[in-house]
Design a protein that fits this description.
Helices cover 47% and strands 15% of the residues. By secondary structure, it is an alpha+beta fold. It has a two-stranded antiparallel ribbon with strand order 1-2. A two-stranded antiparallel sheet has the order 3-4. It has a two-stranded antiparallel ribbon with strand order 5-6. A hairpin with a 4-residue loop joins strand 3 (94-97) and strand 4. The N and C termini lie far apart (110 Å).
């Protein structure tokens, strides 16, 4: 880079930077809430919830929290067996696609194939083609018009 250009660039950056600082010095700082009172207000409900949870639950060796015996589940909470069954059903019907980062339905089961042999399939296709023809205009198979049998010429 040419020395004159780099000097111009340096001067421009210094001027732009100092204007931003001067502007920032004139602004009044925002008033922040006192963190001690805010934290105390937000922690109190959490500690109450934690105490209630610990009163009704125990840690199970299977690495999960379970209700203590004699304690009923809160209103609206479904039984664990029902939730597990729903989860297993979802996992059976869906798979995670890492490329799109979404859950996608698994492909439906492929219906059982034909029990005909390849020879039988070929014979069936030939029989169909004898009685039908493909119409390009309508894009479909049409039944062939009935043909009248040809009469052989008789020698007379």
């Amino acid at each position: 880079m040419h020395p004159l250009r780099s000097a111009r660039l340096l001067v421009s950056l210094v001027i732009a930077g100092s204007a931003g600082v001067a502007h920032a010095q004139g602004a009044t700082p925002p008033v922040l809430p006192d963190p001690t009172t805010t934290m105390a207000r937000s922690i109190t409900p959490l500690s109450m919830d934690a105490k209630e949870f610990l009163r009704t639950h125990r840690w199970d060796p299977s690495d999960t929290w379970v209700l203590k015996s004699g304690v009923e589940a809160p209103v609206g909470v479904r039984p664990r067996a029902e939730v597990k069954a729903e989860r297993d059903d979802f996992l059976r019907k869906n798979q995670f696609n890492q490329a799109t980062d979404t859950w996608t339905p698994r492909k439906a089961e492929i219906p059982a194939g034909s029990t005909l042999s390849s020879k039988q399939v070929r014979a069936d296709a030939l029989a169909f083609q004898r009685t039908h023809h493909w119409d390009e205009g309508q894009n479909q198979w049409l039944l062939n018009p009935e043909r009248t049998p040809r009469m052989k010429a008789t020698k007379g």
